[in-house]
Amino acid sequence: MPKSQFIDPAEVRKAGKIKFTDIPVNAYKKTVKDEVKTFGKENLVRIYRDMAYLREFETMVNLIKTQGSYNGLEHTYPGPAHLSQGQEAAAVGQAYHLGREDFTFGSHRSHGEILAKALSCIEKLPDEELMTIMKEFLGGKTLKVVESAFKADSVKELAINFIIYGTVAEIFARETGFHLGLGGSMHAFFLPFGIYPNNAIVGGSAPTALGAALYKKCNGKDGIVIANAGDGSLGCGPVWESLNFSAMDQFRQLWEEGRRGGLPILFHFNNNGYGMGGQTRGETMGYDLLARIGAGISPTQMHAERVDGYNPLAVIDAYSRKKPLLESGEGPVLLDVVTYRYSGHSTSDASAYREKEEMDAWMAVDPLVTYRQELVKAGVAKDGDIEKIWDHVRETITRVTKLAADEKVSPYISFQSNPRIVEDLMFSNEKVASFGTEKPSVLAPKEECSRVKQIAGKERFAYKDGKPVSKIKAFNYRDALFEPIIDKYYEDSSLISYGEDVREWGGAFAVYRGLSEVIPYSRLFNSPISEAAIVGSAVGYGMAGGRVIVELMYADFMGRAGDEIFNQLAKWQAMSAGILKMPVVLRVSVGSKYGAQHSQDWVALPAHIPGLKVCFPATPYEAKGLMTTALNGTDPVVFFESQRLYDIAEEFHEGGVPKDAYELEFGDVSVIREGGDITILTIGATLYKAVKAADILKEKYGLSAEIINLHSLVPLKYEKILASVKKTGRVVLASDACARGSFLNDIARNITELAFDDLDAPPVVVGAQNWITPPFEFDAEFFPQESWILDAIHEKILPLKGHVSTVNNYLPVEQIRRAEAGV
């Protein structure tokens, strides 16, 4: 808790009432005729044109998906189609006042939002800028196809063809799509217009948009951020976490001048009444009116409002009032935009959960009908003018769809010519010293930080003059993490760090201790206990162009951020065809002493997910080198740390931990001790058990063990591992992870396949018991001990004369029994 804030018992125990103000519901009452002077006839008609583009686009996708044909074009599309017919007014109204500096994030049902924002940008941008954008995007690949097929009357008409073609080509999985067809319908985006990714996970846009708003706030960037989601997403925890996170008091009360004020984020809920087949109001939710939620989030009630999303002018009006609030630091904002979807959740949904009478009632007030009638009634346009719009829209969509479906001009990416095309996109593998463009904001020179001064006087090797250095004088594992982090703060102005208790407390395990003396609130702050929002917002921050370190206090808490780690952090670089970078370091502490829900080694989980780099340093030398590498890179890194190791000094690297910055290559391994009789591979704190086991092997049995620590799990180079196995012919692998499903099993399999002829015995994996983690008092019965390593060698690899096994884990009969018992 900040020392500057005092919780006064007299104040918080005082009797009183919480007061709420009225939340407007469908307050806009003007007609088209009333708005002619404000908008002008041309803009009022353009609003209709944009809605027509959205409607015809979704009609095309629906017909292609369900019937295999559209306006004479025969085409098969096997992918997803979550359509938004009926929601056009909400999308066009939202986009009307937005520029390319404003970021929009979509849902699985966001084709319309992409097109609406793009059409709005095309209208606002000068021709020269539009041409530059189209020529530079993907080297002009998409533009060349469009220019060769169409003769546009203007640059803006060319840009409309370009944006529709790029979107269709992306949906059809074509190489000329906006990201090579690798994202598809539910993940499409176009960054040059501030259109950030759609998200196939319900509510997934909330935390990522939150992170983009943080990026704008922390880096002084113009524009606001829109998180588009459906009403059904309010059943999702990450959405609630994001709403709360976005409204934190510290933005107004604790952040420094120049950064103080609310986040520039607007949560736009397209309230179509359904979450898949569940009716939100009256069945699956309890809020009655969605806008009510704002009153429970902040004293401003999030400036919440219910808006008639079937009237584009009502939505435009709402944005004209909310956007200035966000730009002046009064965010966040929540809009409950009432709308309706005529299609089912997807094209396979027959809408059996709703009556035809309901659908007919909504179609009777369809904005494409009612707004058209108002245009004609107000004398803004004639029916003939509207028909010409429809003719042009249908002709455009038809021509573009035919072009996108033509495999000769719109080919698929070729796995035949490049089998590694997706593999090459999994990681960007770039080095960027700084993503910031400004001088880093700090409170004092780095040398004035008390922690920096303290570290300067420490011994950087565990031994001096042959004797152990005392803990208080030794440069330790947490110091080794601190050094590259503080260095990067003074190099990269975009770097921020947050998590639970990271500021005054210095992080749960004191890695950040001292940083608050020199780093301002906007760059180092405490987050709510909201793991999903912590990681999900980091994804959005990285997407938007910044570098971020976030912390989960325990590895066990990864489950509370599962989607954000496994579906968001891991996938966006490849799904974007390398357009997006993800310079995010997720620090995860592996616990000890705290039982079944706080002491689990879960390195196998992120190691299993393609797209994540995973490391687990076991020494201070490894910790500093790997953190330096991670903070210079552009890829997402899950950085495991063991609570058993924070106080240890460097015992193995000659000369100790260097003062100057250095990198360790991800994928490399550390040869801790050379030997010739057996190889011991370790992950994490088990290294130190292996050293003890190697000492016993040498002293008692005359065997020389080569110890290799695997500080990087993904990627992982095998050269040194295989060379060692070739030399020794025997290998045992040890970590604190439960043996079943351990990442070591994968390594053991690869060793068996790659070095079969060199092995004198099968590789043996030593891991924790397949139980819950018991209390600390039973550590020796649960986690691998040096005796377990000796047991494994004795029972499976090389009999040790006179050795008596301490556990039965490695007897065949016991292995079979445990497998049958599920333990």
What do these coordinates show?
By secondary structure, this protein is α/β, with parallel strands linked by helices. It folds into three domains: 42-409, Thiamin diphosphate (ThDP)-binding fold, Pyr/PP domains (Rossmann fold); 446-642, 3-Layer(aba) Sandwich (Rossmann fold), CATH 3.40.50; 670-821, Rossmann fold. It has 29 helices and 23 strands. The strands form six sheets. Strands 13-12-14-15-17-16-21 form a seven-stranded mixed beta sheet, with helices on both faces. A five-stranded parallel beta sheet has the order 3-4-5-9-8. A five-stranded mixed beta sheet has the order 18-20-19-22-23, with helices on both faces. The chain is globular, with a radius of gyration of 30 Å. 53% of the residues are buried. The mean pLDDT is 95.
